[in-house]
């Protein structure tokens, strides 16, 4: 059993939704590889909630290098998949390599953690039909259009898929995902 986890993201991903699972899973002892459209330094963003705004605000966030280009990913090398949110999933969902990667994890019943706008990727790949999923609440129509039941929850577990709304849900989301990992992808 491999102890490697793949985190799929790109420019304009939400900083906290990349770094929290990246660091927390490394703390557990997993190797986490960041895959993006190209192997380059990525520019993340910070989404915050400001009183008086009807939606979240966006500011420049941290930068971080991608470890591997999506086209070079062999998903068989990984035990689990993490899909952070932010704006990155809006364009990543159309990438054939992202869809190939996501389909592998679902077909092999490997653990998947998705948060915020991350479920746009699994929806576009046709993987949510008949499932239950959380996501950023504004995505409820997208989740339903993908054939899934939208659940407004901080840690929705559907088999080996764990989803959440946004970064305020991190503690419950990662706690639930790590429980799935300990069963389906335990460290040696």
Automatic annotation (TrEMBL):
It holds the Pfam family DJ-1_PfpI. Residues 4-179 form the DJ-1/PfpI domain. InterPro entries: C56_PfpI-like (IPR006286), Class_I_gatase-like (IPR029062), DJ-1/PfpI (IPR002818). Gene3D superfamilies: 3.40.50.880. CDD domains: GATase1_PfpI_1. Belongs to the peptidase C56 family. This is DJ-1/PfpI family protein.
């Amino acid at each position: 059993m491999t102890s490697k986890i793949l985190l799929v993201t790109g420019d304009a991903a939400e900083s906290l939704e990349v770094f929290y699972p990246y660091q927390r899973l490394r703390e557990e002892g997993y190797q986490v590889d960041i895959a993006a459209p190209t192997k380059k330094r990525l520019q993340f963003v910070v989404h915050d909630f400001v009183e008086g705004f009807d939606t979240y605000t966006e500011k420049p966030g941290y930068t971080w290098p991608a470890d591997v280009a999506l086209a070079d990913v062999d998903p068989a090398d990984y035990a689990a998949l993490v899909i952070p949110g932010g704006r990155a999933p809006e364009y990543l969902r159309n990438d054939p390599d992202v869809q190939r990667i996501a389909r592998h994890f679902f077909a092999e019943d490997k653990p998947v953690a998705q948060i915020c706008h991350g479920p746009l990727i699994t929806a576009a790949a046709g993987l949510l039909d008949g499932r239950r999923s959380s996501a950023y609440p504004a995505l409820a129509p997208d989740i339903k259009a993908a054939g899934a039941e939208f659940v407004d929850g901080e840690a929705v577990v559907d088999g080996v898929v764990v989803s959440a709304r946004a970064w305020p849900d991190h503690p419950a989301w990662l706690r639930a995902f790590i429980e799935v990992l300990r069963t389906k992808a335990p460290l040696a």
